[in-house]
């Protein structure tokens, strides 16, 4: 607040509001994993809005959403590299004995716990599907 970063302050307030809202709705105290899922959901919402604003030719709103995405990503843990993701996938496939696309759920269950907040699980799912021949 004192540094005058109004955008960052607004994002921090949105984050705390979203966390408190989920805690009140579910009557629980969120742990770190659940807070990460709240942040990921907020980023996903902004990415979807960004696409809509681009389609509507609203550059001012595109810039605002892009700035919020950047600020929100600053509160996520360090993202995994492609080689780390590939290693996680290989380990999970070996651990589950997955042989076909039918086993994606088993593999993703293992990966989700290790990559939550550190990788885009949609992209990871696509890689798993490609590896299993889907």
Element layout with pairings:
Blueprint: H1 6-26, H2 32-55, H3 59-73, H4 82-96, H5 104-115, H6 121-131
What can you see in these coordinates?
By secondary structure, the protein is mainly α. It has 2 domains: 6-73, Hypothetical Protein Yqey, Chain: A, domain1 (Orthogonal Bundle); 82-131, Arc Repressor Mutant, subunit A (Orthogonal Bundle). It has helices at residues 6-26, 32-55, 59-73, 82-96, 104-115, 121-131. Helix 1 packs across helix 2, helix 2 (32-55) runs antiparallel to helix 3 and helix 5 packs antiparallel against helix 6 (121-131). The chain is globular and about 55 Å long. The model has no long low-confidence stretch (mean pLDDT 89).
Distance between the termini: 50 Å
Number of domain units: 2
Main sheet summary: none
Helical proportion, percent range: over 70%
Helix and strand element order:
HHHHHH
CATH architecture of the largest domain: Orthogonal Bundle
What is the CATH homology-level superfamily of the largest domain?
Answer: Uncharacterised protein YqeY/AIM41, N-terminal domain
* Overall pLDDT confidence: 89
Give a short synopsis of this structure.
This protein is mainly alpha-helical and 134 residues long. The chain contains 6 helices and no strands. The chain folds into 2 domains: 68 residues, Uncharacterised protein YqeY/AIM41, N-terminal domain (Hypothetical Protein Yqey, Chain: A, domain1, Orthogonal Bundle), CATH 1.10.1510; 50 residues, Arc Repressor Mutant, subunit A.
């Amino acid at each position: 607040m004192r540094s005058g970063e109004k955008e960052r302050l607004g994002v921090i307030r949105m984050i705390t509001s979203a966390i408190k809202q989920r805690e009140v709705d579910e009557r629980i105290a969120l742990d770190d994993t659940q807070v990460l899922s709240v942040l990921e959901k907020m980023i996903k919402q902004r990415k979807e809005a960004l696409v809509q604003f681009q389609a509507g030719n609203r550059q001012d709103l595109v810039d605002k959403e892009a700035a919020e995405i950047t600020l929100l990503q600053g509160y996520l843990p360090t993202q995994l590299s492609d080689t780390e993701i590939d290693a996680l996938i290989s380990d999970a496939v070996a651990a589950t004995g997955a042989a076909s696309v039918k086993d994606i759920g088993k593999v993703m269950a293992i990966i989700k716990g290790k990559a939550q907040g550190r990788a885009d699980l949609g992209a990871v799912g696509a890689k798993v599907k490609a590896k299993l021949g889907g």
